[in-house]
Amino acid sequence: MYSLIRKFLFSLDAEKAHQFSIQSLSLIGKLPFPLLSIPNNPTEVMGLKFKNPIGLAAGADKNGEAIDGFGKLGFGFIEVGTVTPVAQDGNSRPRQFRVLEAEGIINRNGFNNHGVDVLVENVKKSKYAGILGINIGKNAMTPIENSLDDYLICLRKVYEYADYITVNISSPNTKNLRSLQYGEALDDLLMNLKNEQAQLSQKFGKYRPLVLKIAPDLMEEEIASVADSLIRHSIDGVIAGNTTLSRESIVGLPYAEQQGGLSGKPLHHLSTRLIYTLAKELNERVPIIGSGGIHSLESGQEKIDAGASLLQVYSALIYQGPSLIQTLAQHIKLKRF
């Protein structure tokens, strides 16, 4: 069935196909019955109980317009965003490219979204009963030295409505954003966000885990430094990782020269290396959400075996459809610590 849907979607421009999918899933979300079952493979991470460990990665539903629809595909958790304090158009089009031969996608969207207030209203309307993460970022117009202000605005606005909050400092499509992954800039950001988390926890009477999303392009010594910061600041989780700037795995293929972050199957080995190195440094003190290049049960299991406690999928959903989510959720073998 999905092969026919995919044929239609792939006849469209990549971004138009995405918009059509969001609109369709928004309608599907209104159905009074589930489209597919949510497989039961329970696990507890960050103090949260997940029905299964397979999640939707941020970027698929930036504005929370189709939460209920995605919830009917079998995911154990959903992450919406990245969202910024005010709406922004993102980078100019075209900005999404399918690398068909490699089952990859290049995007340079640039945090295009309707703003945090719109996202919150959509979340409030949702009937989704699973774990919901909200991914927050900074506006492109905000100077990098003022980034904390944007993250604090978003954190305060989404805190009451999220089960966890992800801080995205690793998109390659916002100028200088990845500089926040290093040294004093990272420490300052994490310290202030943790302080705000403590105040919000007291205000609302509930603790919402704080998660950091990092890039797969970090060197080993940089990963070690990030791990040290995560531990010292008691960050609740880390997503490893975002899209890559590397083109090593798609050299010579159509669109390989396009600027932006590469996701999908070509990212698998790089993101798995990140998880493995990060897991060694963290030594189970901070849970890892594995994201990037999962395209089969075997590739998902590799990420669990490398040290991930949860998994996130996006590009493979486009190429393979919901059946992969069902397979992963039912058959992935989790490590029980």
UniProtKB/TrEMBL annotation:
GO biological process: 'de novo' pyrimidine nucleobase biosynthetic process; 'de novo' UMP biosynthetic process
Catalyzed reactions per annotation: (S)-dihydroorotate + a quinone = orotate + a quinol
Localization of this protein: Cell membrane
Active site: S171 (nucleophile)
Cofactor list: FMN
Keyword Oxidoreductase: yes
Any one GO MF annotation of this record: dihydroorotate dehydrogenase (quinone) activity
Known pathway: Pyrimidine metabolism; UMP biosynthesis via de novo pathway; orotate from (S)-dihydroorotate (quinone route): step 1/1
Cellular component terms (Gene Ontology): cytoplasm; plasma membrane
Keywords: Cell membrane, Flavoprotein, FMN, Membrane, Oxidoreductase, Pyrimidine biosynthesis
Residues the record lists as binding FMN: A58, G59, A60, D61, K62, T82, N135, N168, K213, G241, G264, G293, Y314, S315
Annotated residues for binding of substrate: K62, N107, R108, N109, G110, F111, N168, N173, N242, T243
Residue ranges of domain Dihydroorotate dehydrogenase catalytic in the record: 43-333
Annotated NCBIfam families: PRK05286.1-1, PRK05286.1-4, PRK05286.2-5, pyrD_sub2
Similarity remark: Belongs to the dihydroorotate dehydrogenase family. Type 2 subfamily.
Record's function text: Catalyzes the conversion of dihydroorotate to orotate with quinone as electron acceptor.
Protein name: Dihydroorotate dehydrogenase (quinone)
Source organism of the structure: Mannheimia varigena USDA-ARS-USMARC-1296
